[in-house]
Amino acid sequence: MPAVAAGDDLEPMLARVETHLELLGEALVQRDAEAIEAHASELHRALVTALDGFAQAARQGHVPNPLRTRLAKAGGQVAIQRECLARATAALDRAIDAMMPRDTSGVYSASGTAGRLPSSGGSIQA
């Protein structure tokens, strides 16, 4: 009977993780920055709580297989969302670099004059 009690204790923790994963996914699709931040924070809290609960139950040998499977699936979903965010961040960084290059040599300054580029060994020497 202890396995049922452990499962009953773990179920709400895991359901909370799943709920916040779903809400975070919806916020990402809608590109709602405030909702993304809120759900990411709540998901983090829910994951910490659930992982602590699962670790305790595992030490006692009371983690039902269906809950293990659901936790593994949730972990996979977190990894997928993390990868999607990393790709989106990289794409944004590339777009920003294209619009605002970091290397400003040869670009006009605030006063409207271009900085002199060092000689690169061309055929005409100054």
Quick summary:
With 126 residues, the protein is mainly alpha-helical. It is 72% helix and 0% strand.
How do the strands and helices of this protein lay out in sequence?
Elements: H1 2-30, H2 33-59, H3 65-99
Largest sheet: none
SSE string, helices as H and strands as E: HHH
Q: Strand content of the residues, in percent? A: under 5%
**For the terminal residues, how far apart are their CA atoms?**
89 Å
Structural class: mainly alpha
The count of helical stretches stands at 3
Structure, described:
With 126 residues, the chain is mainly α. The protein has one domain (2-99). The chain is built from three helices and no strands. The chain has helices at 2-30, 33-59, 65-99. The longest helix is centred in the middle third of the chain and has 35 residues, at 65-99. The chain is elongated and about 70 Å long. The model is unreliable at 1-5 and 121-126 (pLDDT under 50).
List keywords for this structure.
126 residues; mainly alpha; 0% strand; elongated; disordered N terminus; disordered C terminus
